[in-house]
UniProtKB/TrEMBL annotation, chains A, B:
PANTHER family referenced in this protein's UniProt entry, alphabetically: HTH-TYPE TRANSCRIPTIONAL REGULATOR RUTR (PTHR30055), TRANSCRIPTIONAL REGULATORY PROTEIN (PTHR30055:SF151)
Chain ranges of the HTH tetR-type domain: 8-68
Database matches in Gene3D superfamilies: Tetracycline Repressor, domain 2
Keyword Oxidoreductase in record: no
One Pfam family it belongs to: TetR_C_1
UniProt organism field: Kitasatospora aburaviensis
Alphabetic keyword roster: DNA-binding, Repressor, Transcription, Transcription regulation
DNA-binding interval(s): 31-50
Protein name listed in UniProt: TetR/AcrR family transcriptional regulator
Length: 220, 220
DNA sequence: GTCTATACGCGGATAGAC
DNA sequence: GTCTATCCGCGTATAGAC
């Protein structure tokens, strides 16, 4: 076969197949040949649609970022509620595709959906009265927490091999081999606990900042 | 050359060279051939000391974990201070080797230093009066935050290309191209702000937990 | 503009000689 | 314990068919 009447491939189809492959078998399984086979096409055909493998990976990552709901960032929305709803939506999108998180955690790069997200968070905080410097820090720290929580399941990181946790070496880890049983609940509980603690701690700071600003007549 | 009188290689020497290579040029630069060249040795010689490349990588990662100070977890130490000091030491160790963080964030695996760390944190929290379930969650959420913050510089994630931040697309990101200028300060500020917020929020919860436990006569 | 065939160099890993 | 030789899969460049 040479040039078919209707194209076999499209960016959409390639991205979808690539994401499915990465979700199912990890980042390493995404090879151009493997992906091409999955699409019933021969290796280098992909290069008609993407310049390099990295460009393809970028598109895959941004398609995941596109699943994050940003509708809570409407003008006038109170920042703690908006941040809470966004963090949950963000985590849900990443947790559905944990294997792409190491790529996405490197920063927004030039990916439009990632930049849109950063813009929305920063905008909400500034409009709520946070000084710009603080808003930058809070955007960063929320990203730290959410990507860290999505990067890998905490509970799954401990091998289930009970013999590993010798009381002489690890006096407090005796039950660690049973963590995997409640994996999802532990990860979600840790995320929710951390999120609420973070928001409480930031609210404390906001009161102080607002008070300081009122007294001194503006911060920067 | 065949078998030398005194071995040219040792696990120590290999690990040190591998870590230097990963730090300087990233995870992708760590190939068995490249590493062998760096050690003035021929490719497959490394397989006399490590079964697979993954085993080598595991050893490299655990050597980084070994740099984390755990001395603050002495019996009787107040948990907020211990957690604060540990988080800083943990972040410092990871920030010195950001390229290995994606590997290490996957969980402790069977790496002894990683397990020792998890054991120390959990033990301190339980001895301080946190219920075991809460202690597990707090260990997880602290790991989320610290690994997330070490995974990549927030500020460096935004391209310096000013033309990228078109006000029509990203109304609040106008100054984002200048983030890289103060990269280190932004990352550290975000980490410290998040850490203090987290500890404040957890302290609030601890008071409630302790009160509840006092009233109900024990939690678990 | 979209596909196939072919080819190059580099990656991890193994086998066997010394 | 280290070498050389070798295998196979990878990303991707190039050439040519339609």
């Amino acid at each position: 076969m040479a040039r078919p009447r209707t194209p076999l491939l499209s960016r959409e189809r390639i991205i979808t197949a690539a994401l499915r492959l990465v979700d199912a078998e990890g980042l390493d399984a995404l090879s151009t040949r493997r992906l091409a086979t999955e699409l019933s096409v021969s290796g280098p055909s992909l290069y008609n649609h993407f310049g390099t493998k990295d460009e393809l990976l970028d598109a895959v990552v941004d398609s995941v970022m596109g699943e994050v709901d940003l509708s809570m960032f409407t003008p006038g929305a109170p920042w703690p509620e908006a941040l809470r709803a966004w963090a949950r939506s963000y985590r849900a999108a990443l947790a559905a595709h944990p294997n792409v998180v190491p790529v996405l955690a490197q920063g927004p790069g030039r990916r439009p959906n990632a930049l849109r997200l950063a813009d929305a968070v920063f905008g909400c905080l500034v409009e709520s009265g946070w000084p710009r410097g603080q808003a930058t820090r809070i955007g960063a720290l929320m990203r730290y927490f959410v990507t860290g929580s999505a990067l890998a399941s905490f509970a799954a990181g401990f091998p289930e091999d009970a013999g590993l946790y010798d009381a002489a070496d690890y006096p407090h880890l005796g039950e660690a081999h049973r963590l995997a049983e409640h994996r999802g609940a532990i990860d979600e509980g840790a995320f929710e606990t951390g999120l609420e603690a973070l928001l409480d701690g930031l609210a404390l700071r906001f009161e102080r900042t607002a008070e300081g600003a009122r007294r001194a007549g503006g911060d920067r």
